[in-house]
Fold this sequence. Notes:
By secondary structure, the chain is mainly beta. It has one domain: Beta Barrel (Lipocalin). The protein contains four helices and 13 strands. Strand 7 and strand 8 form a beta hairpin.
Amino acid sequence: MQIRTAVFLVGMCVCASAARAGQLSILEENDSLFFTSDKHYTQGIRGAYLSDPLPPDDWRYRAFDVVPVLFPDAARSERRFDWIFLGQSIFTPINLQLNPPDPHDRPYAGWLYTGGSLLQEDGGNRLTDFELLLGVIGPAALGRQVQNDWHQFVVGIPGGEGWHGQLRNEPGLALSYERRWRVTFADLGGVSVDIVPEAGVTAGNVLTYGAAGGVVRIGQDLGADYGIARIRPAPSGTDWFDDARMTAPLGWYIFAGVEGRAVARNIFLDGSTFASSAHVDKKPLVGDLTTGIALFWKNAICLDIGLLTRTKEFYGQQGQDSFAGFRFSFGL
C-alpha cells in the first residue's frame, strides 16, 4: 500500500509516442486504487490501439468522408483511427452484503463494449473526435464474475451479494461527437501554460448527455496531446499523441480540469431500457473535477495518473464519488 501510494503521489505519467505501427494503451480506473471505497462506479478498464497518421488511400481515412460535415478542413488535417478493442465498466451499490440490494441505492450493472474513434486534427490546435461504442449491459457483460472473483481470490474479501438484481441483458450503443481546442497562454523559460476547452454530445441507450469543460496544463511539449484519456463520462482527453511536436525526448505536464454534463439518459441509474429493473432517480446536472500529472518519453512507454471527484449523480446518494485512473501506453 505504501509503495502504491508513493507511485500516485509522484504522479508519474509516461505517454508512449506511436511508432510506425501505432500505439497500444491500457486504461484502468478504480475507486479503491487511492481511495478507501468500493461503490458506485467502482471499476473501469479499456484497451485501445491508436493508428499512425492515415494515408489518403487507407479505408479508415476515407471513412471520415462519409460524414464530411463533422470533419471540415480535411485538406490541411491529420487523421488517425483509435480502436477501443475492449472495455468494461462495473457499477455497484455501497453495501455489497445486502441481499436483496438496497432499492434506493445505485443498481448493480456491468457494461462490456468495443468500438472506434475517428480523430482529426486541424491546424495543429483543434481536435475532432467521432466515436461509436457497441456492447452489452447485463449479466452478459460479466461484471459479477470480474468483481466477485477479484474480491475473493485477490483481495480476500466477500464479493457483492446482490448481483442477481443487476440490470437485464440488452445491447448497448453510445455515439459521441466532441471537439477540443488547444490555446497557449504563456511560455516561461521552456515551461508552457495552455488550456484545452472541450464541448460535445453523447447519444444512445447507454448514455445521452451534453458536456462542456476544459483542462489547464502546465509543463513542456504540451503540443504532443490534448490531455489524458479517461473513460466516458468524464473530462477526458483522447489517445491522440504526436511525438513530432516534441522539442526534447522527455515532456511532462500537471493538469487540472472540470466538466459539466446535462444528463438525459444514464442506463446505470435509469435502469434497463426494455425490461423492468432496479433504478434510482438521477440528477440532471453532474460535474467532475480532476487533477493529475504526466510524463512522456519520445518513442517509448507510458503511464499517466489522475484523480477525479464527481458530484452526486442521483437523489438520495450518500456522498460524492472519487476514483483514480492510470494509463500505460507504448509504441509498436
